[in-house]
């Protein structure tokens, strides 16, 4: 495995936010604080347009050889009408995650007191600190059979399959329990066991695993209730463990607690030390090329990279502090603006963070 950071800008605002995150990496390279080499590759709609595949072979080869991967986002209206799922931009990302066997996705939602634009009252949010552990390798996004077929009445029906084996449930459960041991020793497992067999198996395995972690308090919650509680009483959560689709939805909802989805980073890990870092948001075609996208989620993804992949926790701390300092000074991108605050562009926000970062490192 090479000491390489593979950069996959992707589509929509992906390249815009990646530009700002790469500035951070370049500063660290210039100051010789990291010795990783940067390499770029294509993914998503951009790769479809230029190479004909959402995940070209060269990209997959480079990804397999890299320790860290930094991704912007994939997808957009231009490719919305492609019917064959294997040819859609999103397939590129799902295939990347599957090929590198990323089985766990960590999303850290922390209420930042400097960001007051959350739609939830700030008294409900103070001290909110949720780590969402999401199973990435199985579930309805990958399950087969899938497709759209005509039935005997010539009516089309769409279908997908949700499959999870007990090995995958146990593996993600262990990650969540191990993390919970280092935090408040509290896990909420989210499923839909009242309706789905796959969720009943999930609950059985998590309950069984809990016997090996007597110090961790476990609760189970149906996903519809969890979606409500995350808004009503977010403080009740510490570690949440859940499957792929429920995690996808709940993490976007949790993003609202941070003020904007543009503030939420994520890390995906496999069992051989490779990690994929990416903002939780998509390609945001509605704001593409306007210079207003918030680059903080992607810069925080670099911070997670420094912590979890490059083993530079102090640099990660300095980068987080630099972001906080810029917010404290009252600079905001449009998504986290409020009255009387200075609105800056994507590039200006990146430059301001670099300016603070260079003072600290
Ligand atoms: P989205 O996350 O792209 O956008 C949702 C809303 O949040 C939009 O109003 C957008 O303007 C806003 N937003 C997102 N990121 C922002 C940022 N950094 N700064 C400011 N505002 C931001 O989700 P969507 O609209 O459901 O999906 C758009 C496209 O992205 C679709 O093609 C979808 O498939 C794709 N997508 C990709 C990923 C990924 O690459 N990981 C994840 C989700 C969606």
TrEMBL record:
Q: Which cofactor does it need?
A: Mn(2+); Mg(2+)
Please provide the record's keywords in A-Z order.
Amino-acid biosynthesis, Branched-chain amino acid biosynthesis, Leucine biosynthesis, Magnesium, Manganese, Metal-binding, NAD, Oxidoreductase
The record's annotation in InterPro entries points to: IsoCit/isopropylmalate_DH_CS, IsoPropMal-DH-like_dom, Isopropylmalate_DH
Question: What's its EC?
Answer: 1.1.1.85
Q: Known catalysed reaction(s)?
A: (2R,3S)-3-isopropylmalate + NAD(+) = 4-methyl-2-oxopentanoate + CO2 + NADH
Any one of the GO BP annotations? L-leucine biosynthetic process
Gene Ontology molecular function terms on file: 3-isopropylmalate dehydrogenase activity; magnesium ion binding; NAD binding
Textual note on the cofactor: Binds 1 Mg(2+) or Mn(2+) ion per subunit.
- Describe its assembly: Homodimer.
Function, as annotated, reads: Catalyzes the oxidation of 3-carboxy-2-hydroxy-4-methylpentanoate (3-isopropylmalate) to 3-carboxy-4-methyl-2-oxopentanoate. The product decarboxylates to 4-methyl-2 oxopentanoate.
* Official protein name in the record: 3-isopropylmalate dehydrogenase
Species, as recorded = Candidatus Portiera aleyrodidarum MED
